[in-house]
Amino acid sequence: QVQLVESGGGLVQAGGSLRLSCAASGIIFSSNVMGWYRQAPGKQRELVAGITSGGSTNYADSVKGRFTISRDNAKNTVYLEMNSLKPEDTAVYYCKATLRVAYWGQGTQVTVSS
């Protein structure tokens, strides 16, 4: 019933940009806190960016100033714009929706080549 469908991942050169999208269904999107997480091989999943129902944002220190999270409630979609990408940004990126419980997307691979 609840689905988070991600798109936009791929291979990009260092210094390049990507925009990830996550389209949600089965939830009251506007009421949910949305977030992007990532997990690299051998590492724990970490919060990259979050955005509240009111539009407040927070970012991991490692991406602050480079990544921007935004949401379009009319489209039930949350975005992650990633600029100045570094090889250390390489990871599987996951979309998360949270209200009473958390739902996760399937993940999309982002690979940044040096």
Q: Let me know the largest β-sheet.
A: 7 strands, mixed
Helix percentage range: under 10%
Shape: globular
Query: What is the overall pLDDT average?
Result: 97
Low-confidence stretches: none
Report the sheet-strand fraction: over 45%
Which sequence of SSEs, written as H and E, runs from N to C? EEEEEEEEEEE
How many helices in DSSP terms?
0
Supply Rg: 13 Å
- The total count of strands amounts to 11
The secondary-structure class comes to mainly beta
Topology summary:
Blueprint: E1 3-7, E2 10-13, E3 18-25, E4 33-39, E5 46-51, E6 57-59, E7 67-72, E8 77-82, E9 91-98, E10 102-104, E11 108-113
Parallel strand pairs: 2-11
Antiparallel strand pairs: 1-3, 3-8, 4-5, 4-9, 5-6, 7-8, 9-10, 9-11
Can you give a write-up of this model?
With 114 residues, this protein is mainly beta. Helix content is 0%, strand content 54%. It contains no helices and eleven strands. The strands form two sheets. Strands 2, 4, 5, 6, 9, 10 and 11 form a seven-stranded mixed sheet that branches. A four-stranded antiparallel sheet has the order 1-3-8-7, with no helix packed on it. It starts with a strand and ends with a strand. The mean pLDDT is 97.
